[in-house]
Amino acid sequence: MGFSVNYRSTEPIESDRALAILSAADGLNKGRTWLSCEPLCLLANDADGRLIGGSKPTFEPHPDDVAAAALEDLPDGTVRDLLNALCELSRRHNVDWEISHDYDPGPIGFIRDGVADEGLIGQIDALGEIVDSCAEMMDEWESARDGARATDDSPNAPDDENSDDDLPPTIKLWSP
User: Fold this and answer.
1) Do the domain assignments include residue 122?
2) Where in the sequence is the domain holding 80, given as residue range(s)?
């Protein structure tokens, strides 16, 4: 499932200031594993001089990433941490942000003077809850599937690793 939270500065940023913001963004990404969401990723947009970026929430991190994160013993980076990092950049560098996502053509909210709109906070928190719920559902599905494989020796048990029984459940969140 593809879904990105997108962010864009509300006005063009001159190059020296943009470099300082990009460097600060890299620093804010440190200290987290970012299993639940991609870290803050900013780029300079040459077309209009704004900083732009996008981060995808992760509904099911790769097992190798989970194992590596466990060794790092760092907190997970979530969509709320992403929002907090953008707020911090806004405070430190006097840059305001408009936030959108793939399923809404306009901004879903703004960060101004380091403060996120209440509606934006609500949408980001709801997205975080969806990510958590999907992760829990995937864990339950995998446990049930693995348990059924371990105990199912009936003649009708699927023996093909790629059978439909091995596909995760589908969740329809909205329709166009």
Assistant:
1) yes
2) 5-150+162-166
Residue reference for tokens 């987290």: 32
47: left (phi over 0), alpha (psi -120 to 50) or beta: alpha
Residue 157 in any domain: the answer is no
Whether residue 155 is contained in a domain is answered as: no
Q: Report if residue 93 sits inside a domain.
A: yes
- Reduced to 3 states, what is the DSSP secondary structure of residue 159? coil
3-state secondary structure of 144: helix
**Residues 79, 86, 32, CA angle at the centre, nearest 5°?**
55
Within 8 A by CB and 6+ apart from 44, the residues are: 13, 15, 18, 22, 51
Q: Which residues share a beta bridge with 37?
A: 57
Run of H or E including 137: helix 118-151
Give the count of beta carbons closer than 10 Å to the beta carbon of residue 44.
17
Using 70 as the pLDDT threshold, list the residues of the chain that sit under it.
Answer: 1-2, 135, 138-143, 145-176
Number of domains in the chain: 1
Q: Give the helix/strand (H/E) hosting 110.
A: strand 104-112
* pTM of the predicted protein model: 0.75
pLDDT in tens, 85-121: 999 999 999 999 999 988 887 899 999 999 999 999 9
Kindly compute the dihedral angle of the four CA atoms of residues 90, 32, 1, 3, in this order, to the nearest 10 degrees.
0
